[in-house]
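Figure 2 data, in text form.
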Amino acid sequence: MSALAELLAGAREQRVFSGAAWSVGDARGPLDRGWTGTRSWEGPPLDGTDVWDLASVTKPVAGLVVMALVERGALDLDSTVGAHLPEYRGGDKAELTVRQLLTHTSGIPGQVPLYRDHPTRASLLEAVRLLPLTAKPGTRVQYSSQGLIILGLIAEAAAGRPLDVLVEELVCAPLGLRDTVFRPDAGRRARAVATEYCPWRGRLVVGEVHDENAVVLGGVGGHAGLFSTLADMERLGTALAAGGRGLLRPDTFALMTAAHTDHLNERRALAWQGRDPAGSPAGQGFGPKSYGHTGFTGTSLWVDPETGRYAVLLTNRVHPTRTGESVTGVRRAFHDAAVALRADDRPPSHT
């Protein structure tokens, strides 16, 4: 059993999650990969084909779509919300820029449970439009799922195609990702890992997006909704570790993954978290230029361009309730162990 396998098996014994899958590697592929546990506490063992709710790891994938549209001339980072979405003209968000949405510096508030009072897609989107800003745009980083919902709408307007189609065309197809989808079909749902017993829905959520706002939006949003497998996520990690190979030009990718908010309260790249000096989910070993993203369901993807290493961690830490043991410490320990792997630790190990 590798150090990573031992760490995650121990976390399962502490009931942080029922299951976990991981892959750590570089541009040549994985150094260590595997899975441990079960799809739910009463469910079958993981087998490596399991389908995971990525939660907010959806955000940087939507960001890759946006940067591909920028590269093609369909979008500009400094174009405004009002320029793309007529319904926003004349409001407090009309002059917000694509760049501000990507860096979470728009002033749009963060995690707002709009689903409770807005049960339809149209009413929820209207509620997003009417949310009052809580900070002056450009003055501070304030993590906002609502901002990424708007960004997804902008991408759709600029390209003339739905966001799920854009993700398939601009991210999944170029990398050969076979199971990275919004709204999994019956076959993928049969392989899905359970998330929360949801009081709002009155049932255990399996193969349906965990994020309630995304549910009301029909399962597709710039902030959440993507599902994926270990194989697909390690393929994405490998491409990122190779400088965005197959996704973006080197200059576009460098712009996306560079820190844009070092003068503010948190380090952010374009749709990616940066490596903050303290409290980073990347632990202690990933370098200052590293970037990544975490997901509320217990997922994460982190990349260090200086060492060329990626780390994928997939868990269901919200199962059966989001109030269970925190995955934060496990995630940091996982990243520290990932950095400690030697580059000659091939072939990949399996659990």
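Caption note: The first helix runs from residue 3 to 13.
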